[in-house]
Amino acid sequence: MFLVNVANPWVLLLSLFIMICLIYIGKEAKNAYVPMLALIVFLILLVMHGIQFLILPAQYESMIPQISSCLLVDFLMIFISYASYLWIDDIEAKAKKKKSIDNSLEWFWKNV
User: Fold this and answer.
1) Which of 5, 23, 91, 98 is most deeply packed, by most CB within 10 A?
2) How far is the C-alpha of 49 from the C-alpha of 108, rounded, in Å?
């Protein structure tokens, strides 16, 4: 059974490095679509790991902990990429003097 094991430490570090690079590029370019790529990739991985978890054959029951850890990493990376997308979207709205629909992270930055 094919499994993209994002819980492997080297793959996790590589994907985190790539996501940080995408966030930096999006911040410098003031374009929220760049970090959205990481969000889309991890949403696809989440759906793929969820489907694999649901239709797991009996002969691959030993892979349940691996798939569960992959799902956990997917959720964590989706949270990070979504928060960065909202942050860069706010930067883009201020730079282009567009009215933002809402300040989704304003409550967070006030409490920090």
Assistant:
1) 23
2) 30
